[in-house]
Amino acid sequence: MAQARKTAPRASASKAKIAQLDWTEARPAPVVLVSGPEAFLADRAGQAIKTALAATNAELEVHDMDAASYTAGELFTIASPSLFAEPRLIRVDSVEKCSDAFLEDAKRYVASPADDTTLVLRHSGGQRGKALLDLVRGGAGDGIEVVCPEMKKDQDRLGFVQAEFRRLGAQATPGAARQLAAAYAGGIGELAGAIGQLVSDVGTRITEEEVTRATEGRVETNAFRVADAATAGRAADALVLLRQAFSTGTDPIPMLAALNMKVRAMARVYGAGGSGGQLAKELGMAPWQVDRALREVRGWSEENLARAIDLAAETEWLLKGGSRDPEYALEKYLLFIARRGRVDGRGRTA
């Protein structure tokens, strides 16, 4: 399976003695702890485990239980050998809400797992069930942990987009991948569905134009079109796009977020030396992001870039209640970016 960019395991699990795997590496084991808040990735990991088990034995028995409503003895009843000794997959959801009975039974079970049985424990976070998690992480049950962290960072979401295209045997240009990640800024599941639909409709070669058509009208896509025009120095185009977005009821906040993302990228590469590849590794950015930021930061002075960062915070305050005219505040910030902070003799943005 294609692998997305790896995310470091959570600090709470950093001392684990068992193998900690990325969600793309999920595989069967006597006990599998699937941890982390990202439900879609956890579902993908669980499906991968089931597929791997079913591939080796068509008689696989699958049992699902809810740890929150568990009653004493259920786990041992399901795991006990049957007449024909079929292999079992026992999937337990909501371990973070488990009953006391489940916690006690599960701790006993992982000390001596049943033969030909895979127990998958889904824990989305929190302290409930920690004693069980510590046992598994300490090596009880000869288990593994599959980590499914929430994908909040832009780079993590981009990595997911690229991995999803690879999984489907398709390719997308860097700009197309970025547009998709921006257009579906909510749940990962929605983003995966959009990628699957796009490949089904368009084929295995995806360009920015095709993504634009597929995501037309989404707020986040409009925001990045505005930001792209502004950082490219096309002030008139950026202003027209911004006012068009306002005319369709677009909220200013996503527009500001897109601009700020570009400004932060420019600030990170400003004055940096080395090749694009070296900078990408040092800054934790994708090479194409570095290349774009290096192009966009040309013509900026250090003083004006610092002022842009200050103005970003000021504009956010104005948009969140500090001004009666948030649209004007955003226009002012956008023009500052598009004109790279240059001002005329009267102190106005040139």
Which helices and strands occur, and which strands form pairs?
Blueprint: E1 19-22, E2 31-35, H1 39-56, E3 61-66, H2 74-79, E4 88-93, H3 100-111, E5 117-123, H4 130-137, E6 144-147, H5 154-167, E7 171-172, H6 174-183, H7 188-202, E8 205-206, H8 208-214, H9 219-231, H10 235-247, H11 252-269, H12 276-283, H13 287-296, H14 302-322, H15 326-338
Parallel strand pairs: 1-6, 2-5, 2-6, 3-4, 4-5, 7-8
Helix pairs in contact: 3-4, 5-6, 5-7, 6-8, 6-9, 9-10, 9-11, 9-15, 10-15, 11-13, 11-14, 11-15, 12-13, 14-15
What would your notes on this structure say?
- The radius of gyration is 25 Å and the shape is elongated.
- The protein has 350 residues and is an alpha/beta fold.
- Helix 6 packs across helix 9, helix 9 runs antiparallel to helix 10 (235-247) and helix 9 (219-231) packs across helix 15.
- The protein has a 6-stranded parallel β-sheet with strand order 1-6-2-5-4-3, with helices on both faces. Strands 7-8 form a two-stranded parallel ribbon.
- It starts with 18 loop residues before the first strand and ends in a 12-residue tail after the last helix.
- 53% of the residues lie in helices and 10% in strands.
- The protein folds into 3 domains: 11-147, Rossmann fold (3-Layer(aba) Sandwich); 151-216, Helicase, Ruva Protein, domain 3 (Orthogonal Bundle); 231-350, Up-down Bundle (Zinc Finger, Delta Prime, domain 3), CATH 1.20.272.
- It has helices at 39-56, 74-79, 100-111, 130-137, 154-167, 174-183, 188-202, 208-214, 219-231, 235-247, 252-269, 276-283, 287-296, 302-322, 326-338; strands at residues 19-22, 31-35, 61-66, 88-93, 117-123, 144-147, 171-172, 205-206.
